[in-house]
Amino acid sequence: MDYLEGLNPEQRGAVLQIKGPVMIIAGAGSGKTRVITYRVAHLIRSGVDAFNILVLTFTNKAAKEMRERITHVVGTEARNIWMGTFHSVFAKILRVEAEKLGYPSNFTIYDTDDSKSVLRAILKEMNLDDKLYSVNHVLSRISSAKNNLISWMEYAKNEQILADDNESRRPMMAKIYETYATRCFKAGAMDFDDLLFKTNELLKRYPDVLNKYQHKFKYLMVDEYQDTNFSQYLIVKKLAAVTENICVVGDDAQSIYAFRGANIQNILNFEKDYPDAKIFKLEQNYRSTQNIVNISNSIISNNKEQLKKNVFSQNEVGDRIKVMRAFSDNEEGKMVAEAIMQDRSTNGLKWSDFAILYRTNAQSRAMEEALRKMGTPYKIYGGLSFYQRKEIKDLIAYFRLTFNPNDEVAMKRVINYPKRAIGDTTIDKIIISADQHKLTQWEIITSAQMYLDGRSAGPVATFGTLIQSFQVVTKNMTAYDAALHIAQHSGLLKDLYDDKSVEGLNRYENIQELLNGIKEFSEREDIEEKGLDVFMQDIALLTNDDNDKNPNAETVSLMTIHSSKGLEFPNVYVVGLEENLFPSQMSLNSRSDLEEERRLFYVAVTRAKTKLNISYATSRFKFGTLINCEPSRFLDEIDAKYLELDYSAKPAASSFFENERQQWARKDTFSKPQAPTSKPSTPPKTTSMLAKAHIPTPGFAPSDTSNLQTGMEVEHERFGFGKVLQLEGNKPDIKATIFFKEIGNKQLLLKFAKLRIV
Ligand code: ATP
Ligand code: MG
């Protein structure tokens, strides 16, 4: 049981408790995910068949990493564990069972864009005011109904919903939901929420199917349980009902998806659902320094609604948390980029040791620009997926039509791309005809001569024949051959090839990349079915990160805090700590929304292992105008003893910034600009990343510093001349505190510092 040695007694207890319901509620970094990983390894080592284990994770990437770790302990058997996100696991099950629910097994998965496209068409047909019935609002209402297992029929009947103050203004909601659901069904398509909604329907309507999966999944584990919604909760509960071998892990303080229907009550109800549940609490944080753990405890203690937890770290105390102030968003980017550059060279770190986390996607722009200017390699996680690019979606739409010709979104996308003289009027006619004759749009297309007038019938019929030819020709082809055939014969490849602009070239290369990916898939040896239909199955569920060709690349990671859940990095920069940004403006109306923002801040700071840096800007461009920003209230809430303020940024030489700077120079805390402050101004304690660069003495060469003594005078390549004040630690990790004339005190690790003894 060698592998159990990497666990503390509480963790080991949870790993060894393989029978019955188990819940682990614990703070960030306490090893919850590690427990799941070891538990699965332990189950397999104890003789449980990997096919009987189901693990639900927050991202596909998390599942992949977990599987790799388990493989280290149990070998290739780990391949057989069912592991992935709720969506990907249940999509797989629905493929097998779809026909019971009236769907083809090749059903299409509509991504959010596809759903919006269907809704937009419906709203237009119904002539509804697109302000009152905005696509985003309508989609989120439908999504929330589905996640609460309210079908369109129940929605229409549910007076509670209709009486809801806001919804009473939108009397057509029920009709929209009905039309949307019916249209998706007719198109043989499920949207993201359907993957859970329909799974529930399947398990409810077919007791034999439920029974089959209850016996298949004898052991269930769910990570990040605090963020499950009702629909997910019920699936898990049903599947676990026979064996009750269910283990969930979570942290109520990290529940950050209430806006998407996540329900913290799922954790609180676990003991009610399973009175025999064994509850484990993990209190030791292994991830972060004591300062980081203390600061995160102090943040979350401002929330009224939370389970009391005692979290401590036995790691080193660590540096204090650095707070940086910038005068604009661009300058914030520059400060962060320079700080990373400096920290990396001073302490011999890798780019991949750094992460920049932000509240909103828009903030990445300033960060990216600054990193690019400095030549720092970076990668944005959770951004627009490769599969969401226009040209990729176009080609995939042809694939989708080939396997599911009823897929209306795909049809609309490519019926006239590349151009085939099928105008919008003709497309409208197809839709109307289909409605009139109670046929599918595909049936109209394939019998165009019968339903459309002569002029438009010709091109439409040709299009139908083209898709039919794909269906026949690609039948026994490998995924790659089929994809290439479709790319060529649809005319899409040529259309992109003929576009010689830079963007055109780029799009052509993207298609090449997709085809390469499909080729790799065709050549895989670990799977039997290699048709294009199999390749297509989960494509809508893939995110940018799953398509990562080089996951271990040496790059700085950029992502929103929401997508950083569960991850960890040695050095973390949380940026944009400003009122109305973080906490976000939308959260300021209710305590519960504000508390969710605070939990988000807690998630952000708890990603850091060694160093945490927080920054804010005093002005920022928003919708094209420069606005003044106040520091976030979250900064006020942190106990100042954990902080180190770096207010030494030199603002850009504009009068606006100069005024700002002078105003700020008189202040020390985060109090709002107007508030008087009684504390004396705090001088910068650390160096400014923007301090004037030192030009080394001609012929500068680092000296051997093994005999460095306090009091000695030195020259540093970048920081200039200084005097050694203190040496601490043992070789080879001796740290020197040096007073540099230009920038003040600085701690350097001697083995990396380039110093010349003067
Ligand atoms: P989060 O709430 O952020 O998801 P978590 O509770 O899932 O955190 P893990 O990611 O499992 O925590 O663990 C945090 C870090 O601590 C990981 O690097 C993990 O390997 C390490 N760790 C956990 N337990 C131990 C242990 N007993 N010994 C050594 N390292 C540990
Ligand atoms: Mg975790």
UniProtKB/TrEMBL annotation:
Major enzyme class: isomerase
Domain of life: Bacteria
GO biological process: recombinational repair
Composition bias, Low complexity: 671-688
Start and end residues of each stretch annotated as Disordered: 667-689
Domain (UvrD-like helicase C-terminal) ranges: 290-566
Gene Ontology MF annotations: 3'-5' DNA helicase activity; ATP binding; DNA binding; hydrolase activity
A cellular component term, taken from the record's GO annotations: cytosol
Pfam family, one: UvrD-helicase
EC number: 5.6.2.4
Residue sites binding ATP per the record: A26, G27, A28, G29, S30, G31, K32, T33
SUPFAM superfamilies noted in UniProt: P-loop containing nucleoside triphosphate hydrolases
InterPro entries xref list: DExx_box_DNA_helicase_dom_sf (IPR013986), DNA_helicase_UvrD-like_C (IPR014017), DNA_helicase_UvrD/REP (IPR000212), P-loop_NTPase (IPR027417), UvrD-like_ATP-bd (IPR014016)
Catalysed reactions listed for this entry: Couples ATP hydrolysis with the unwinding of duplex DNA by translocating in the 3'-5' direction; ATP + H2O = ADP + phosphate + H(+)
Limits of the UvrD-like helicase ATP-binding domain: 5-289
Keyword annotations of the record: ATP-binding, DNA-binding, Helicase, Hydrolase, Isomerase, Nucleotide-binding
Similarity section: Belongs to the helicase family. UvrD subfamily.
Alphabetized PANTHER family for the sequence: ATP-DEPENDENT DNA HELICASE SRS2 (PTHR11070:SF2), UVRD / RECB / PCRA DNA HELICASE FAMILY MEMBER (PTHR11070)
Name of the protein in its database record: DNA 3'-5' helicase
